Automatic annotation (TrEMBL):
One of its GO terms (molecular function) is transaminase activity. CDD domains: AAT_like. Coiled coil: none annotated. The lineage of its organism: Eukaryota, Viridiplantae, Streptophyta, Embryophyta, Tracheophyta. Keywords: Pyridoxal phosphate. The keyword Lyase does not apply. Belongs to the class-I pyridoxal-phosphate-dependent aminotransferase family. This is ACC synthase. Residues 1-253 form the Aminotransferase class I/classII large domain.
Length: 253
């Protein structure tokens, strides 16, 4: 069957959005906590070769930058290596940049669109998806954007968009809001400032309780290390801890 590689840990709803609906497999590229989940060429090659040995045809690689759930951004060298990898394998790259404007401290966000201007690659293999849901706090407006250099993909997206058109009222509201440069600049500045404050408040509170977190700089997430609270290193023990948190603390993690 067909499959996509996906950098782990990844957004769990990819399973619902991709695997359950289309039957396409999602094969994780294992990134280790020991190196802060950095993506390595070895991990990419291992995942690809394992699929080849199982007669699974890899169609592409999916990544989210900034990351959900890690809250980190991919640096320029890493993005270059990813583009080189998919170009060498002649597979597609789908880059979800939905959290692009949520970076609240360095390093800054680098779009994959910048990378393909710097290195030689087959642009027909590169596809970017985005939405206003996170950066502008408008999830209920259901506004998604696809940017692709591949005419076949664009034509397919154009036909499918007929089933999810953005209403005229929504278009008018957003056009008016985004045309106001003063408002937009102030909003983005205030948004990143509040994200930084909330992130600091949350991680400092966890640190006081002896809970370590992955150092992050973007998004709406905090990757906590709760291993010391597990009775044993098993999935069942993880679920037991989750039930305690949700039932007794009333917090869904």
């Amino acid at each position: 069957g067909d499959a996509f590689l996906v950098l782990s840990p990844y957004y769990l709803a990819f399973n619902r959005d991709l695997r359950w609906r289309t039957g396409v497999q999602l094969l994780p590229v294992m990134c280790q906590s020991s190196n802060n989940f950095q993506i390595t060429k070895e991990a990419l090659e291992e995942a690809y070769q394992k699929a080849q040995e199982s007669n699974i045809k890899i169609k592409g690689l999916i990544l989210t930058n900034p990351s959900n759930p890690l809250g980190t951004t991919l640096d320029r060298p890493t993005l270059r290596s990813l583009v080189t990898f998919i170009n060498d394998k002649k597979i597609h790259l789908v880059c979800d940049e939905i959290y692009a404007a949520t970076v609240f401290r360095a390093p800054n966000f680098v779009s994959i669109s910048e990378i393909i201007e710097e290195i030689k690659c087959d642009r027909d293999l590169i596809h970017i998806v985005y939405s206003l849901s996170k950066d502008l706090g408008l999830p209920g407006f259901r506004i998604g954007i696809m940017y692709s250099y591949n005419d076949k993909v664009v034509n397919c997206g154009r036909k499918m968009s007929s089933f999810g058109l953005v209403s005229s009222q929504t278009q008018h509201l957003l056009a008016t809001m985004l045309s106001d440069d003063d408002f937009t600049d102030k909003f983005m500045f205030e948004n990143t400032k509040r994200l930084a404050n909330r992130h600091g408040m949350f991680t400092n509170g966890l640190q006081e309780m002896g809970i370590r977190c992955l150092e992050s700089n973007a998004g709406l997430f905090c990757w906590m290390d709760l291993r010391h609270l597990l009775k044993e290193p098993t999935f069942e023990s993880e679920m037991g801890l989750w039930r305690v948190i949700i039932n007794e603390v009333k917090l869904n993690v």
